[in-house]
Amino acid sequence: MSLIQGLPKDLTWNFSQVFGDKAGEGEISEADIIAAVEFSHDGEYLATGDKGGRVVLFERNRDHDSVEYRFYTEFQSHEPEFDYLKSLEIEEKINQIKWLRRKNAAHFLLTTNDKTIKLWKVHNKQFWVETGMNMFDPRGGPRDPAMITSLRVPSLHRLESRTEARMKRLYANAHAYHINSISVNSDDETFLSADDLRINLWNLSVNDQSFNIVDMKPANMEELTEVITSAQFHPTHCNIFTYSSSKGTIKLGDMRANALCDKHAKLFEEPADASAKSFFSEIISSISDVQFSHDGRYLMSRDYLTVKIWDLAMERKPISTFKVHEHLRPKLCDLYENDCIFDKFGAAWSGDDSHILTGSYNNHFRVVNRHNSTDVLLEASREAIEGPQHVLTPIKVLTAPSAKKQARNEVHVDQMEYAQKILHIAWHPSRSVVALAAVNNLYLFRQ
Hints:
Structural class: mainly beta
Radius of gyration: 25 Å
Strand content: 35-45%
Largest sheet: 4 strands, antiparallel
Number of strands: 34
C-alpha cells in the first residue's frame, strides 16, 4: 500500500514540477493556453504548443537521476493567416505535435494548426568569430595601407553554441477542413493528416503532393451524418491505421487492400442502449481521441464520459469501459448550454500499456489500472501542492444536493470549475511520469 491509506502504490502520484504563470498574476492571455503536449520517443524531451502558435521544448535534466525537465528552446511555429478566397481567418493555434524518431544530433518534429503542417529541425548550432585581423579598424572599415607594417593571420574562436529551430518542409493546401490529427508512420518515411472529412498520406520528403486515403465527403453535404475526429497509424504495421468518428465508431483501414480505404477493414462499434437514449446521446458518444496501445494489440477511445478499451480481434464491444466523470451526467443540460459538452479530451497509455490517463474538469485527471479496474481521481493545482515531494490526495466528488464540503480533497459537483479543464496529456514512454496541460500551466507528476 502507499503512503495514503487504502490507495494502491501504482495509483499514488507525487508532484514533480510545474511550468507557467500563477493564475493570480494577471489575466491569462488566450495565446498562452497550452493546446498540445507530446513526449519524444525516448522521453528525454517534452514539447508543448499553445494557442499563440508557439512551441516550447523542455529537456530532461541529466544532472539528476529523477525525471526533471528544464527549458530547452522556444520558437514560433505558426502565424495567423487569412484565406482570401474563403474570407476565413486561420488561427495560429497548435493542434498537434509529433516527434520523429531521432537519427542524429538534431531533433525533427511535425506541428500543425488548422490548415498547415510544418516539419521543424531543432539542433545546436556552433558559431565562430574571427579575431586577430589588422586590416580593418574597430568599426569594420579598411585601415590606411600606409599604417599597416605587417600582415597578421586571423584566427577563429568558438563561441557558445545556440539552439536553432529551422523549418525544413511546409505541407499546405491539402485540407479543405480543419486538421484534427497527424500521425507519423512506423516506417519513419510517411505520415497521415486528418481533417473532418478526409485523411491524406504524405511522404516526409515531398511537400507538394499527398495521397487521399479516406474520403467521407458525400456528394450532397446535406447528407453528411458523421465526421472524422481522430486518426493514428499502427505502432508497428505501416499499412494499418485507425480513425474515429463523431458517431462513436472506430474504423481500421488497411492500405494493402485499396489505394482509397473508404471501405474499412474492421469496424468497432458498441450497440446503443435504447433505454438510455436521450437528446445528448449522439453528442456524448462522439470520440475525441483514439490511440493504439504500444504493442498494437488494443485500441483506446475517449468519448465525453468514458474511456473504452478495444481488442483488435473483437469488434462487437469493448473489453473494458471506464467512467471518467459520471457525476456530470445529470449536468449535461448545463454543459450543453455553456458548450462544454463539445470539449475534446485526450487520453494516453502508460509505457507498458497497463494504465491509462485522461483529463476532466476542475483540473482533475483520472488514472486507471486497466487490469484490475482500480482508479483514482486527482487534481493538478498549485494550491493543493504543499512541497516538492507532495503526495497527491484522491479527490472525492460530492453529488448529493445537501452534501457539504468537509475536507480539502472534497468538491461538490455544483461548485466545479468548467473553465479549469485538462484536455491535453502525455505519458512518458518508459517511466511513470505524466505531463498535463491545465490552461496555461504544464504540470508533471511522477510515481
